[in-house]
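Q: Got a minute? One more chain.
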Amino acid sequence: MNKIGENEWEKLIDGLVENFQPDELITHEYIKSKFLIVAPEYEEFESVTEFIEAINLQQFEYMSLIEKLRLDVLDRHKLYMSNIRGFGYKFLKPSEQTTYAREKAIDAVKKELNRGLLILKNIRHDSLTMEERKRNSDEMAKLGQLKQMLKIV
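A: Always. Here it is, folded:
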């Protein structure tokens, strides 16, 4: 999977921070070259299925390395790498990192609250006892209140 040794990994992290300023695009191609990831060639495989599996495996490997990279950069250099969908990543300016973290956390909580409410609403009420129905209703009310509180945040 990862062809990069520990020393090379440290150099990669330090090099990114030294060579890229906040808001400057770090392309997927650049990162893949540093990860020593080479795209599979169709001719290397006996079938389309094997080729597609190789591409999927490579994407999984890349995303796993990216997650580790993002966490290590954040931990070591206190910079967050934000995804620029389809293009690559950028370091957030320190002045933007607080707002970004808050918004990201609130969005994640709202998403999970909505998921919880969906599950609570879509239940087979006729299969519940009166006590279970009351509990379901109480839990929906609690999550609904939390959702209302987040609207003002």
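A: The two ends are 42 Å apart (CA to CA).
Q: Perfect, thanks.
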